[in-house]
């Protein structure tokens, strides 16, 4: 299994992830997120244009996401790159039922899609083995 597949399988098996941003007040903010899909080493997420996280990411595009089981955890860090256009919104709507229930259709320009550029993923466990670190894209 290549590095990206191990990371994507972990995210799919553990769909609730937490995304850390720098708030507009300069303080850390953490909120739940869910990976929509992955393509070519890129991990795609979405948010709404009216949400605080959108403003935070416009101000400072660097994020760290984390997901875990009881004995293993994953951290992904990188820079948010926005993906414009109806096709990106269509992919988001098709990927998760919750996205479709909130934004209804791909004509809703409030839906903002992004991927994590310069993504570095680290998988760590409680064994004596060193963490595995992968550059995804």
Short account of what is shown:
The chain is an alpha+beta fold and 137 residues long. It has helices spanning 3-13, 52-59, 86-95, 97-103; strands spanning 17-22, 28-33, 37-39, 42-48, 62-68, 72-83, 111-125, 132-135. A hairpin with a 3-residue loop joins β5 and β6 (72-83).
What can you see in these coordinates?
Helix 3 crosses helix 4. The protein has 137 residues and is an alpha+beta fold. The chain is 26% helix and 44% strand. Strands 1, 2, 3, 4, 5, 6, 7 and 8 form an 8-stranded antiparallel β-sheet that branches. The model has no long low-confidence stretch (mean pLDDT 94). The two termini are 16 Å apart.
Q: Residue-averaged pLDDT, rounded?
A: 94
Ends distance: 16 Å
Q: Tell me about the biggest sheet?
A: 8 strands, antiparallel
Number of helical elements: 4
Strand content: 35-45%
Layout of helices and strands:
Layout: H1 3-13, E1 17-22, E2 28-33, E3 37-39, E4 42-48, H2 52-59, E5 62-68, E6 72-83, H3 86-95, H4 97-103, E7 111-125, E8 132-135
Antiparallel strand pairs: 1-2, 1-5, 3-4, 4-7, 5-6, 6-7, 7-8
Helix pairs in contact: 3-4
């Amino acid at each position: 299994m290549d590095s990206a597949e191990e990371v994507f399988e972990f995210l799919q098996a553990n769909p609730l992830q937490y995304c850390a941003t720098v708030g507009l007040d300069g303080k850390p903010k953490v909120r739940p997120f869910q990976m929509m899909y992955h393509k070519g080493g890129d991990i795609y997420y979405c948010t709404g244009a009216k949400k605080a996280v959108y403003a935070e990411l416009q101000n400072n595009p660097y994020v760290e996401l984390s997901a875990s089981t009881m004995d293993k955890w994953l951290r992904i860090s990188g820079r948010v790159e926005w993906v414009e256009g109806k096709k990106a919104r269509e992919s988001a709507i098709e990927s998760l039922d919750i996205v479709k229930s909130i934004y209804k259709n791909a004509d809703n320009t409030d839906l903002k899609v992004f991927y994590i550029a310069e993504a570095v993923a680290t998988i760590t466990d409680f064994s004596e083995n060193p963490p595995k670190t992968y550059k995804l894209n």
